[in-house]
Amino acid sequence: MNTKVGIIKGEKEDEIRIKEAAEFIKAGGTVAFPTETVYGLGADALNAEAVEKIFKAKGRPQDNPLIIHVASKNIEAYAKEIPEVANRLIEKFWPGPLTIILRKKDIIPNVTSANLDSIGIRMPDNQIARKLIEFSNTTIAAPSANISGRPSPTDFQRCIEDLDGKIDYILGGDQSDIGVESTIVDCTINPPMVLRPGGITLEMLREIDSRIEIDKAIMQKPNKDLKPKAPGMKYRHYAPNAKVTIILGERKKTVEKIKEMVHYNIENSKKVCILTVEENAKEYTEGISIILGSGKELSTVARSLFEALRKCDDLKADVILAEGYEEKGFGVAIMNRLNKAAGFDVIEV
Ligand code: TXA
Ligand code: MG
């Protein structure tokens, strides 16, 4: 398949490119597009055959449901039994990085929801994404635009890397601002529950309903007694080729432990990357330090995390040593993604 690339350049012709992409969606094709969280791989959510192409292009397990993307807060065509708390979440956080799970209407084909009777819905904040949805005149089902299991792409070059030749169109915009996927809140239960931490923190959600909790199963290694409620959270994910280990603890001890591990690995002829923050980077004199951002501003760390994991692959690293973060605010989403990349291999110091 020949994949066409249209790059948004902040000029008049941009609209033509978005319309061109929308024509592929309308015709049942697949389009990668920017969102504020990560790039998505979209198809018409109401067209079962089109949605099947997403699963095929990504190599995605059939039991993993997709999120549908809308350009308006009016979702009555797709969801039924919309509780009051869902309306309040929508009012406060849409457009933005929040996916709400509701009971689905029959118009949503089973392939889109992976045979569940619920559906995740999100209104992205990114203008290009919203225009694409509007011009397509439908709702767009879109998982992250990566091959299943790889880190989600935060720029269009990474979409090309994973999906060139497998999809119809790549709409290239800016780098994703948030860098981790949307927060998923299940509103089919009362009180609602966070199934995946993301761009909207638990603290922010609790301003709407103080009873909201995070699914306990997602912050630890999945086991048979405690399974994550979001099907996608059970898979190994965000995994670069290198072996990832998280070192978690007080700053000084973390740095000391990492320095010792870097030295040991280099002695054993391994290529080592360190995922660090600007405050700590100068401490590491061996190995390749990749600065994610500032430890004082965790949104900067979230923004560059997936790109950093991919860069480690480009560098052919054997070992990735990642500094851990306190599970508070944005730290929850960052640790969730790191834990999955590391297969929950954490050394506490
Ligand atoms: O930020 C995002 O949400 C991005 C952008 C493209 O919008 N999309 C995204 O989609 O991350 P994906 O497919 O990579 O992740 C969707 C997650 C999966 O873990 C899936 O299992 C869960 O949402 N999910 C979807 N529908 C669900 C449902 N009805 N019940 C429970 N979990 C659901
Ligand atoms: Mg994904």
Summarize the structure.
Belongs to the SUA5 family. Residues 15-200 form the YrdC-like domain. The strands form two sheets. Strands 1, 2, 3, 4, 5, 6, 7, 8, 9, 10, 11 and 12 form a twelve-stranded mixed sheet that branches.
Give structural notes.
There is one protein chain. By secondary structure, the protein is an alpha/beta fold. It folds into two domains: 4-219, DHBP synthase (Alpha-Beta Complex); 243-348, Rossmann fold (3-Layer(aba) Sandwich), CATH 3.40.50. It has helices at 14-26, 48-58, 84-93, 110-113, 127-136, 156-163, 202-205, 251-267, 298-314, 331-341; strands at residues 4-7, 31-33, 40-44, 67-69, 79-80, 98-104, 118-122, 140-141, 169-172, 183-186, 193-196, 213-214, 243-248, 272-276, 288-291, 319-323, 346-348. Strands 1, 2, 3, 4, 5, 6, 7, 8, 9, 10, 11 and 12 form a twelve-stranded mixed beta sheet that branches. The protein has a five-stranded parallel beta sheet with strand order 15-14-16-13-17, with helices on both faces. It starts with a strand and ends with a strand. The mean pLDDT is 96. The structure holds threonylcarbamoyladenylate (TXA) and magnesium ion. Magnesium ion binds next to loops. Threonylcarbamoyladenylate binds next to β6, β7 and β11. Residues 15-200 form the YrdC-like domain. Keywords: ATP-binding, Cytoplasm, Nucleotide-binding, Nucleotidyltransferase, Transferase, tRNA processing.
Task: Please render the helix and strand layout as text.
Elements: E1 4-7, H1 14-26, E2 31-33, E3 40-44, H2 48-58, E4 67-69, E5 79-80, H3 84-93, E6 98-104, H4 110-113, E7 118-122, H5 127-136, E8 140-141, H6 156-163, E9 169-172, E10 183-186, E11 193-196, H7 202-205, E12 213-214, E13 243-248, H8 251-267, E14 272-276, E15 288-291, H9 298-314, E16 319-323, H10 331-341, E17 346-348
Parallel strand pairs: 1-9, 2-9, 4-7, 6-10, 11-12, 13-16, 13-17, 14-15, 14-16
Antiparallel strand pairs: 2-3, 3-8, 4-8, 5-6, 6-7, 10-11
Helix pairs in contact: 1-5
The structure holds threonylcarbamoyladenylate (TXA) and magnesium ion (MG).
